[in-house]
TrEMBL record:
<dbReference type="InterPro" id="IPR029036">
    <property type="entry name" value="P5CR_dimer"/>
</dbReference>
<keyword id="KW-0028">Amino-acid biosynthesis</keyword>
<comment type="pathway">
    <text>Amino-acid biosynthesis; L-proline biosynthesis; L-proline from L-glutamate 5-semialdehyde: step 1/1.</text>
</comment>
<feature type="domain" description="Pyrroline-5-carboxylate reductase catalytic N-terminal">
    <location>
        <begin position="3"/>
        <end position="91"/>
    </location>
</feature>
<dbReference type="Pfam" id="PF14748">
    <property type="entry name" value="P5CR_dimer"/>
</dbReference>
<comment type="similarity">
    <text>Belongs to the pyrroline-5-carboxylate reductase family.</text>
</comment>
<keyword id="KW-0521">NADP</keyword>
<dbReference type="InterPro" id="IPR000304">
    <property type="entry name" value="Pyrroline-COOH_reductase"/>
</dbReference>
<dbReference type="GO" id="GO:0004735">
    <property type="term" value="F:pyrroline-5-carboxylate reductase activity"/>
</dbReference>
<dbReference type="InterPro" id="IPR036291">
    <property type="entry name" value="NAD(P)-bd_dom_sf"/>
</dbReference>
<dbReference type="InterPro" id="IPR028939">
    <property type="entry name" value="P5C_Rdtase_cat_N"/>
</dbReference>
<keyword id="KW-0641">Proline biosynthesis</keyword>
<feature type="binding site">
    <location>
        <begin position="62"/>
        <end position="65"/>
    </location>
    <ligand>
        <name>NADP(+)</name>
    </ligand>
</feature>
<dbReference type="Pfam" id="PF03807">
    <property type="entry name" value="F420_oxidored"/>
</dbReference>
<feature type="domain" description="Pyrroline-5-carboxylate reductase dimerisation">
    <location>
        <begin position="153"/>
        <end position="256"/>
    </location>
</feature>
<protein>
    <recommendedName>
        <fullName>Pyrroline-5-carboxylate reductase</fullName>
        <ecNumber>1.5.1.2</ecNumber>
    </recommendedName>
</protein>
<dbReference type="InterPro" id="IPR008927">
    <property type="entry name" value="6-PGluconate_DH-like_C_sf"/>
</dbReference>
Amino acid sequence: MNIGIIGVGTIGGMLLEKLRADSFYVVNRTKEKLEKYKGMNNLNICDTVKEVYNKSDIIFLAVKPQNIDEVLYEIRKTQIFNKIIISTVAGKDLKEIQEKTGKDGIIRIMPTILSKTGNGVTSVTFNDTINNKLKEKIINLLSSLGKIVEITEANLNAFTILSSSSPAFISLIVESFIDGAVNIGIKPKVAKEIFFETLKGTIKLLEEEKIEFSALRQMVSSPGGVTIQGLYSMEKRGIKGTIMEGIYESYQKMNNM
Ligand SMILES: NC(=O)C1=CN([C@@H]2O[C@H](COP(=O)(O)OP(=O)(O)OC[C@H]3O[C@@H](n4cnc5c(N)ncnc54)[C@H](O)[C@@H]3O)[C@@H](O)[C@H]2O)C=CC1
Ligand SMILES: O=C(O)[C@@H]1CCC=N1
């Protein structure tokens, strides 16, 4: 199977590294970005969207939303109709891609940067031209990215914020813990090591022991102790509301794309 990737940035690069194909056909606006992949023996660097489209069986669209229309326009000009187009682009729906390309086999995935290590959850949404056998083949292809879930397009925006945007939110929160630790005298490297273990252990405990969040808070907070003092300060400043609001605003922006 030949896979095409149009736009080899963060997500296109991740797809190139993680997917399995007989050959890859790729195009990127700035060719220098492709230098680091030149050692791959099944990689073909193309000059145009048309070349990638013509030579591939499945074509991933991985450009930013502001660049997608120019790509769809190039695809529209091609006269081959039996290809599968998989868009990673946030906010561009199946119908619009179908209309703008004049092609039928359209799929959306919502990828995550966590696939770089084979983790995270990637969603897949098929249009109604894709039969069950083909769905199975696509899910199988995507499985090297991590966990794959099929969702409806109506759920895609909320999924995007929870799965694809969250690594950025989590990174900010984790960084705040490290800065907080440095502020009380712990070296950044040591703080990172200890906090990463603490984070992994907390998730494991919540998952494996099925402990409720509030129960875990109680288990750690001694009456009149230090933990409850910290929780009180965080709650007073509305940490939960701040994070919930951030998620909601992201979602609103996604709905208005
Ligand atoms: N970065 C992330 O974590 C996620 C991104 N996405 C979606 O993935 C898509 C790609 O995002 P990123 O990889 O972050 O962007 P990026 O900016 O890292 O990569 C896009 C690449 O497309 C190239 N490009 C632009 N116009 C082109 C054209 N006409 N022909 C060929 N190449 C062209 C650019 O040179 C760039 O290398 C976006 O639509 C975004 O909504 C979805 C989920 C997560
Ligand atoms: O921020 C964005 O627009 C993209 C979609 C989800 C993650 N990154």
